[in-house]
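Figure 2 data, in text form.
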Amino acid sequence: MKSIREMDAPIGLAFFFGPALIIGIMMLISGFNTVSAIMVLVLVLCGLKYMHTSIIGKYRIMKSIVNSIHLKKDSKILDAGCGHGAFMLQFNGQAANISEIIGIDIWSNKDQGSNSIAATQKIMENSNLADKVKLKTANILDMPFNDNEFDLIVSSLVLHNIVSTP
């Protein structure tokens, strides 16, 4: 993913660029104000950092983590909350050691635009892992797997979405 249209929680940009725009318009109307100008600059820089992290930065971190993992032959991996499969794709270079990667998600569009099992399957079809990936609809609070079924479980940018139930 390298497109702003597919970034995580794109609505987050409104929290940075929206106030920056409002403050900027107020400065145009009422005149320049150093404090307001600094606020606009900080908001814009934070918005740009947010975009960078979502579009580029998180992939660098995932790649670094995957490069430090030494999989045994025929490893079975679970990606809990796989979304578009960003973490799974980082295992492309280790496909020879992987027997299966299962990605589960509830496929919500709340935090990730175009999040669907079909969209993720299409992304996986263009990878070295295409024949090893199986996608399922499942909630990480009630996973349909046996104990010790996987050699590795990854989960990234998921836990903040868990809602406690009474």
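Caption note: Strands lie at 75-80, 98-105, 133-137, 152-154.
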